[in-house]
Amino acid sequence: MVVPSNNWEPTIVGFLCNWCAYQGADLAGTSRMTYAPNVRIVRVMCTGRIDPTFVLKAFQSGADGVIVAGCHPGDCHYSEGNYKTIRRVTLLRKLLSQMGIDPERFRLEWVSAGEGAKWAQIADEMSAAIKAKGPLAWWETLKEA
Amino acid sequence: MAESKNDVRIGVYVCHCGSNIAGTVDVDDLTSFAQQQGSVAVARNYKFMCSEPGQALIKKDIEELGLNRVVVASCSPRMHEPTFRRVCEDANLNPYQLDMCNIREQCSWVHKSGATGKAKALVSAAISRAYYLQPLERREVLVTPAVLVVGGGIAGIQAALKVAEAGHKVYLVEREPSIGGHMIQLDKTFPTLDCSACILTPKMAAVKAHPDIELMTYSEVVDVQGYVGNFRVTIRRKPRYVDESLCTGCGICQEKCPWKADSEFDCGLGQRKAIYTPFPQAVPNVPVIDPEHCVYIQKEGKCGACLKFCERGAIDFTQKEKMVDVEVGAIIVATGYDLMDPSAISRLGYKRFPNVITSMEFERLCNATGPTGGHITIDGKEPKSVAIIHCVGSRDEKYHTYCSRVCCMYALKFAHLIGEKIEGAQVYQFYIDMRCYGKGFEEFYQRASSEAVNFVRGRPAQVTDFAMTPEEKGKLVVVCENTLVGRPVRVPVDMVILCPAMEPRADAKEVARRFNLSQSADGFLLEKHAKLDPVATANDGVFIVGCVQGPKDIPDTVAQGLAGAAEALALIEKGRVELEAATAFVNEAACSGCKICVSLCPYSAITFSETEKLSHINEALCKGCGVCVAACPAGAIVGRHFTDQQILAEVAALLVDTRPATVAV
Amino acid sequence: MSYVYYPGCSLTGTARECEESIQSVMRFLGVKWTELEDWNCCGAAVATGVSYLLSLALPARNLALSEKTEADLVTGCSRCYLNLIRAQHYIQHNANLKRDVNAVLAEAGIQYAGTARLRHLLDVIINDVGLDTVAEKVTQPLSGLQVAAYYGCCQGMWTYAQFDSTEDPTCFDRLLAALGAEVVYYPLKQACCGGTLSMSKRAVGAPLIGDLLLAAIAVEADCIVTACPLCTFNLNSFQNEAGRAKGTKFNMPVLFVTQLMGLAFGLPPKTLGLHRNVVPPDPVYRKIAAGAAASSAEAVASGTK
Fold this sequence. Notes:
The structure holds three protein chains of three kinds.
Chain A: E1 12-17, H1 21-30, E2 39-44, H2 52-61, E3 65-70, H3 81-98, E4 106-110, H4 116-133, H5 138-144
Helix pairs in contact in A: 1-4
Chain B: E1 10-15, H1 27-35, E2 40-46, H2 52-65, E3 69-74, H3 77-90, E4 98-102, H4 104-108, H5 115-131, E5 140-142, E6 146-150, H6 154-165, E7 169-173, E8 188-189, E9 194-195, H7 196-209, E10 213-216, E11 219-227, E12 230-237, H8 252-256, E13 260-262, E14 271-273, E15 275-276, E16 288-289, H9 295-298, H10 305-309, E17 322-328, E18 330-333, E19 337-339, E20 356-358, H11 359-366, E21 385-392, H12 407-421, E22 426-431, H13 441-450, E23 453-457, E24 462-464, E25 476-482, E26 487-493, E27 495-500, E28 502-504, H14 508-514, E29 542-544, H15 554-574, E30 576-578, E31 584-586, E32 606-609, E33 614-617, H16 627-631, E34 637-639, H17 644-654
Parallel strand pairs in B: 1-2, 1-3, 3-4, 6-7, 6-18, 7-10, 18-29, 20-27, 21-22, 21-27, 22-23
Antiparallel strand pairs in B: 5-30, 8-9, 11-12, 12-17, 13-14, 15-16, 19-28, 24-25, 25-26, 31-34, 32-33
Helix pairs in contact in B: 1-5, 2-3, 5-17, 6-7, 6-15, 12-13
Chain C: E1 3-6, H1 8-12, H2 16-28, E2 33-35, H3 47-50, H4 52-69, E3 72-75, H5 78-93, H6 95-106, E4 118-120, H7 121-136, E5 146-150, H8 154-163, H9 171-178, E6 182-184, H10 197-200, H11 202-218, E7 223-226, H12 229-237, H13 239-246, E8 254-256, H14 257-264, H15 282-301
Parallel strand pairs in C: 1-2, 1-3, 3-4, 5-6, 5-7, 7-8
Helix pairs in contact in C: 2-14, 4-5, 4-6, 5-6, 5-8, 7-9, 11-13
């Protein structure tokens, strides 16, 4: 059990699709919005590219939370990629709890290219929520297993 | 190409971007951190990496230090990835061996503290991914030298004319029976007070006459397939019930038709027939029959007056809708705007009081071709006093926060026209600010101020017919606070003109989807970059021009129409377009023939060979979305430039600082 | 849904008749509530002139008291409601204010957490009880009675934003329609009655009241119905002064919303405080009776009775 120090900050990995969510996060930047620095972004072309192993890798490597953010359903740049993501995520959530990861540490969000404010809000909310939960330190769980 | 570990030589370049990054991120610390990472041959930082000297720095290192990977930590890849890819190419390094790290839009600009730490993690991740990047082959296809223009308002008309002028084929598709858009509804245009029809109808005629422009009115785009340079578009041609090739535009059918309906062109203030051209100067000058009001259609064969009187036999009730396919290299979307319906703001009395009208309705009253022949009257009565209320639904938290740009100017125009047509008329402008920013606009404002126009700075609370003094009897009263004087005023007037917000069209969302475009937060279509790329979109080859992109006046709309034409022509003149290099391919040795991938591809790029029992990806069709890559249970599909190996390495390196050094991942 | 009721000073004082009708009608509708224990004055329009902090602490204390009950806090006085919701809003959005107000409340051994749920009487009637239930309970439909629904002004900004529209509120109209009344278009429905100016600066207040009465007459209303005890008080009590200001004589019945509701429910006028109304509501009774007789006759004529 890793006991966090008083100023422990969670680290969250965000998998963002190039066309909507990543652009939305860029917009938050050009609009100079301020939000928590806890989310580190990995760019993919489409959330449909996201293999569940990426999410597990993130937790295994030390992430306390993971966000997948893509285009709103119906607006996918590649037509239907985000629908596949929905299906995979549904299964992934079940898998996560079976692996000892609180499924609330994983979020699926829809952020359009114009929703910079929404991205900033998600980053802030997720950071606060994960901070309240404490560190995951999944490598400890794996060691015990 | 197998490289040994020693062969990978990464150059890392941290950009200060002036103080944009350096102001929040310790760039020196970041650079020395990068230098210490594995396989990094050199790490530098510079004030502006994208500038000439910055680019030269990278090129020199590639040549002299034998770099075979480049990592640039700077702004968003959406900004300068093409720039730095070109730098690599110039130095004979494959452009796909560049990885960019966003430490500006997603780091220095948004974090007041913790930016340097995050930047280190991001750079670490980019370096790890770069290690596994492979050179990719770039392929080109030819561009179909034709352009589709969607929307026949001034933006679309201008774009079409310019492309055709360059000698290329244009398909101009317009939903209404005639081109002209909203501009042809206007009376005079600011700031020169040109008659709108006088300046627009020659352009409309030029469109009709041009041999390279195929005009399809009363038609809509229903499907778009393909990609930049090679679009296949399906257009639905709605049945006019009039044969365009036979009709001479004599107009006798409209004269003889006994059935009337509200004229959409006149905003419902006047009537038209069931067989109609929306206005006399319609292009094409061929009427359409409105099936809802045509008795022949509604009552199966009754009436038929038009059939009887048409000397050319052009009426054809057997017409059905037709689907037409066209192939084009570029698409220009110019579908325009709608005016907000101000009935939502009920306290202003629109629809409750007949004397409260919108600006477009006023344009129709003022226009000589309008329902009142150009006389400003309601129920036959001429107003002696008129109130013009600005910002109805614009600059309003409850409706639209944006400014609609054109209203201040046309409100001044109205004041002038009213003064001209009605002697002794008093005009009151209820405004928040007077926005007269364009060429000749301020002068127009000064001129209007010297005429009999009263300016009241305030947002009216109410338009009421309840009279509280004898002067108010029989009038509409605008209740407002004059904020410059600090007192409430009640202004009795005979007519109120509302300046409603310019809104995206009601079907903007569908249009966005059809052309694979995004909408901005305000609902208008999203441009690639607000300042530097205002008509391009995220969908290469599709351009947005005019008010579909946001409220603007005629000069700006025309400029954008021309810009869209330039973009399309650049594409056509180049003649070739590069295909996406980061496509997927099937590792045949690993493919087990399960066929899961085949149905997943939205572009039908995957086919299954029954003889070989293998899936195969057509790289000309593949867009690199990666859905099949993630789905393959055998991991047999490789997504170039976003391989599992690259992404997993990126993720592991991203989190190195979160776990104890002893934990291996 | 449990409620705790905050009457405030006016309703238990000069606006007794409104309070009586509120209690009778809510009891009739089966709404159970207890009175907020140890409530204090909300500060009305006066507290802000003394101290900004006081004007927030006074309503905050009532909010804090309601938090302890965990029930919805309902008030029938629009000024109380306005003060409470403003306090709630400002304290929620300003951490410094919250700290300062709680420092004041701490002296009284109480703290405001920010979880209080504030409801307006109209909101509870229309949205919790529901207009269908109200319509069902009507035994004496107000057919033929032409009512001007007066929403009032200071309420508008905050009150109707919660459960109606601030630009063009219609909740009151819908409630009156459920009672069977004919709601007339009232152009001054959100115009100010002058508030306390009727007493402190009569020269300003009286004409404002006069305008409201003139407007009601112009649209041929039989009565004005209000949702605010101060409006009721103003419109009722200063008809002579208003008449002098406007050069006419007024005799317009003005009822509080629950008074009219009670009449439609067939409750005895005395239980609705109607005997206390300054302008006797007799014309209203007559119109209601006439309306009842007319619809009865109609039913006989058409054979439905």
